[in-house]
Design brief:
155 residues, mainly alpha, elongated, transmembrane helix, membrane, transmembrane
Length: 155
């Protein structure tokens, strides 16, 4: 038994596309070759000192641009200003009151205790320092407490 591979039938548009791509690629290669030959003829007539001077000037220009880009990257002083992005915010998900049950009384008591503790910290200087450290180490804790109080109907 002989197994034959299926030959792919080419549509006329595929053949035209392949031929066009081949022509374009050939034109690009021809243009590159002509440009390289022209540049070769121009530089072959230049004195060696001039070629070296141009090479050194191009190297210095490239080095200057690189150092400038590094400086801007390190210091953050960019010459091109873009748009600033706003900070991302996470939406607050609050459960409806109907889902709360009477077994949440322990949680309500804990929320009230935390709120009272934070209120007592606000009364003294050392307490305010301690509260500032808590808020600094746990950003958003006061907002969370306020949301919990609103959720459970605490004042």
């Amino acid at each position: 038994m002989v197994i034959r591979q299926k030959t792919k039938k080419r549509s006329p548009t595929g053949w035209v596309k392949d031929r066009a791509v081949t022509k374009i690629a050939g034109f690009i290669l021809l243009s590159q070759r002509e440009w390289a030959n022209w540049m070769n003829n121009k530089t072959s007539k230049m004195p060696l000192q001039r070629v070296r001077l141009i090479a050194i000037a191009m190297g210095l220009l490239l080095a200057a641009v690189s150092v400038h880009a590094l400086y801007q990257g390190i210091t953050g002083k960019h010459s091109i200003t873009g748009t600033r992005l706003n900070a991302m915010s996470t939406p607050v998900v609050i459960m409806p009151r109907e889902t709360l049950t009477s077994s949440d009384s322990a949680l309500r008591r804990q929320i009230s205790d935390i709120d009272e503790f934070l209120d007592t910290l606000k009364k003294t200087v050392s307490g305010r320092r301690h509260l500032a450290k808590i808020v600094q180490s746990h950003p958003g804790i006061l907002d969370s407490l306020k949301a919990m109080k609103n959720l459970y109907g605490l004042k």
